[in-house]
Amino acid sequence: FSQLIMEGRKLALVAIFSLVLSSLPSHTVSVAVMSVDLGSEWMKMAIVKPGVPMEIVLNKESRRKTPTAVCLKENERLFGDSALGMSVKNPRSVYLHLQSLLGKKHGNLQVALYQKRFPEHQLQEDSVRGTAYFKYSQEMQYTAEELLGMVLNYSRVLAQDFAEQPIKDAVITVPAFFNQAERRAVLQAAQLAGLKVLQLINDNTAVALNYGVFRRKDIDSTAKNVMFYDMGSGSTTATIVTYQTVKTKESGTQPQLQIRGVGFDRGLGGFEMDLRLRDHLAKLFNGQKKSGKDVRENHRAMAKLLKEAQRLKTVLSANVDFMAQVEGLMDDIDFKAKVTRAEFEDLCADLFERVPQPVRDALSTAEMTMSEIEQVILVGGSTRVPKVQEVLLKAVGKEELGKNINADEAAAMGAVYQAAALSKAFKVKPFLVRDAAVFPIQVDFTRETEEEGTKTVKHNKRILFDRMAPYPQRKVITFNRYNADFAFDINYGDLSFLSKEDISVFGSLNLTTVKLSGVGSSFQKHADAESKGIKAHFNMDESGVLLLDRVESVFETMEEEKEEESTLTKLGNTISTLFGGGSSEPTPNVTEPVQDEEEVPPESGTEDEAEEKTQKPEETGSKTNPKVRGVVSAGRSVALKRQTWRRFYALLVKGEQDNKTSGEADAERKAKPKKKSKISEDIAVELLINDVLDPTPEELTSSKKKLQDLTDRDMAKHEREKTLNSLEAFIFETQDKLYQEEYQFVVSEEEKEQISGKLRDASEWMDEDGYAATTKQLREKLSQLKSSCKDMFFRVEERRKWPEHLAALESMLNTSSFFLRSAKLIPEDDQIFTEVELNLLEKVINETTTWKNETVAEQEKRSPQERPILLSKDIESKLALLDREVNYLLNKAKFAKPKAKAKAKNSTSADKDNSTSEEKTIPPAEQEKAPPPTVADTEAKSDSFPGPTE
């Protein structure tokens, strides 16, 4: 019976253990996340995975940054440095600086500027969306989003190779001045790349986060203002950030960064300097009159000069002059010319004059002065230009500029920290981020009114998000004067802080027209209720993208409320619940707010103020009183307490009823309190996008298929090249092996000639047809050659293994024999092994020795060119059998208990009984996991400990 109980307990434990294991996460699940600092010229990736906190991804060339470039040819696709190298040979097939085309229509000035900078490309207009796309040929046409999707997918491949596991979650950086259309375009490109975007983070915010994370200890309740001046390849941004600790409900006092001011220049960057240097070099070459052609009309020559100009700019940052030179620039003519730093600065004089303006704009936006800024920190590769630092230092009036962060990698590291914080797989120290919207957004609507018989149309606006409004944030706008279907517009607000050029590049100032239907029917359905307006719920998410969550028609009715319980009744219910006498009804669900929605009031001082009612911020959740859980008690003391409390409560109730007059009782019966009840009904919404149309689901599907086809083509090409290389390597290596001594020893002349002939035929086939053959044909040819050489390779491999394997077997036989002799010498009174066990070990030793001697002798008689009978797998099997038998006996000896000694003759009868009893050796639990018994174990009949079982 006790054994049955123990078995039941074991089964229960096994079941519980299995359940726990099934609930544990699998180690194969991908938990790594990545960030992509998507610059106009370079991109940097970083990852976080278990065991690797934050690390920059190295590309295939072991570089820490990768060119944001893609090369598309008829049957080839290249990325990164390989694509950039092709820009000199075939610039028309290489696509660079794609960011400047995102979210832009074909008529945008930025598109015209791109066409001027890269005249080798054909930019066509999409007839539906109005955007620009690249036309390489009739079959090869790509949008900027598709090309950027290819680049993002390549960044994911690099990150996966570096992390050695799949990655899908990413945080991508974008310039702070990206508007809604540009942000949506990046999200579309990421979708095409198969990336799940946790957040689009502004690059200046990512830099500020990286700076703050590594200086967490220096941040306290005193606000500290820091300016980051970021000049990259395509643009410049100045950002003012305030660091201080704040108190939060969730995690107590934590550090926080808040974006206070942003100033930017879309066209001020290192690439414009490169282009001016390139044009200067072209002018010098034309001035040398070595060729009668204009070098500026040759796309390949200009691509070579651009590459040299980029190198020249870097060298002039550390030297006052440098000799620029390009071999075979055009018509096999070499170019060589000296360029000084002074000449470079003269070429870019107007650019350097624009350096201080982003600083002024950032201070103006933040309503600060430079005296309030503690430090100005340089970010971006173009800030290494000496003239930029000189002009900036003079503009900010500081003694020095901060260079204490990695100017190239700060954004990628800050973004990957945010990725880890947003991922559910990692736990990081909180660092609060309050980003800000650079461009204000408002809601515009019109309404017809009639005054003295004259109908007029009133134009109204409500500011949804002010300039530098923090996000993520939800807001609600209430329309109180509509009882029929209507429409309103979502537009950008006052952009007077932008220059005329910025406005022209900005694109459409109108975002979306929202058409509502079903408003009238909702009023008819709830005619008896009081209207509380049409509420539109907006959300600017973590990526800075504005969304219209929903629109609802809200009504309010008055309902009779159940008579409120008196204080004594509540006390009685509480007491009853405390002692197990409460109601068994479940508590209704209470929904806590995720994020409060802010009600947008009408603009002060406008006509709309008199007509549109302003409401307080809506409550999105309700507070509930703490509930007392019922406690089931047992015992006499608890019962006495329950009885005492009930008597006390009954006396209180009786006293309260005696004190009430009949008039008061009548008044209580007549008074029926009422409460307000809210009714909401969703309104159908139709969105008409006014800036840049999003691709339709069909277009997205088509783009995904186009990119997937290219990926499949790349993989097929890679597989074919891999198979081709394997076939070539096998032919050359095998031909060489036929002349090596160990192969000649096991191969007859006839077999050697046969293998050589097949290898020779395969080599000739490779020269004639192999390089045009399919992957399947290459694999078949390789398989045929391997089959022909299989026996030769087997004989050589076996002979290589013999010395080591035979030595191990000989050593094991000696060890086993020594152990057997030692075991047999144990005195009979102390013997822990049975005769069957020792005989079994002796039998295995003898059989193994006989097999080894006979097989080795037989092998020596055979020719080396024949298939061997001494096989390494047989030796390994004999070793395993010996090892199992010896280990079994060793384990038994390890856990055996010493036998009890016989006592003296004058001991008591009880002692005599004990002395004659033989103590049994109980095997350890671990023996249950040993290998199964041999045939000899099953044939032996003995009361000794049974053989090990699996």
From TrEMBL:
<keyword id="KW-0732">Signal</keyword>
<dbReference type="GO" id="GO:1903298">
    <property type="term" value="P:negative regulation of hypoxia-induced intrinsic apoptotic signaling pathway"/>
</dbReference>
<dbReference type="GO" id="GO:0030968">
    <property type="term" value="P:endoplasmic reticulum unfolded protein response"/>
</dbReference>
<dbReference type="GO" id="GO:0005788">
    <property type="term" value="C:endoplasmic reticulum lumen"/>
</dbReference>
<dbReference type="GO" id="GO:0034663">
    <property type="term" value="C:endoplasmic reticulum chaperone complex"/>
</dbReference>
<feature type="region of interest" description="Disordered">
    <location>
        <begin position="562"/>
        <end position="630"/>
    </location>
</feature>
<dbReference type="Pfam" id="PF00012">
    <property type="entry name" value="HSP70"/>
</dbReference>
<comment type="similarity">
    <text>Belongs to the heat shock protein 70 family.</text>
</comment>
<keyword id="KW-0143">Chaperone</keyword>
<feature type="compositionally biased region" description="Acidic residues">
    <location>
        <begin position="594"/>
        <end position="611"/>
    </location>
</feature>
<keyword id="KW-0256">Endoplasmic reticulum</keyword>
<feature type="region of interest" description="Disordered">
    <location>
        <begin position="896"/>
        <end position="950"/>
    </location>
</feature>
<feature type="signal peptide">
    <location>
        <begin position="1"/>
        <end position="22"/>
    </location>
</feature>
<keyword id="KW-0547">Nucleotide-binding</keyword>
<feature type="compositionally biased region" description="Basic and acidic residues">
    <location>
        <begin position="612"/>
        <end position="621"/>
    </location>
</feature>
<protein>
    <recommendedName>
        <fullName>Hypoxia up-regulated protein 1</fullName>
    </recommendedName>
</protein>
<dbReference type="InterPro" id="IPR018181">
    <property type="entry name" value="Heat_shock_70_CS"/>
</dbReference>
<dbReference type="GO" id="GO:0140662">
    <property type="term" value="F:ATP-dependent protein folding chaperone"/>
</dbReference>
<dbReference type="InterPro" id="IPR029047">
    <property type="entry name" value="HSP70_peptide-bd_sf"/>
</dbReference>
<keyword id="KW-0067">ATP-binding</keyword>
<feature type="compositionally biased region" description="Basic and acidic residues">
    <location>
        <begin position="910"/>
        <end position="929"/>
    </location>
</feature>
<dbReference type="InterPro" id="IPR043129">
    <property type="entry name" value="ATPase_NBD"/>
</dbReference>
<dbReference type="InterPro" id="IPR013126">
    <property type="entry name" value="Hsp_70_fam"/>
</dbReference>
<dbReference type="InterPro" id="IPR029048">
    <property type="entry name" value="HSP70_C_sf"/>
</dbReference>
<dbReference type="GO" id="GO:0005524">
    <property type="term" value="F:ATP binding"/>
</dbReference>
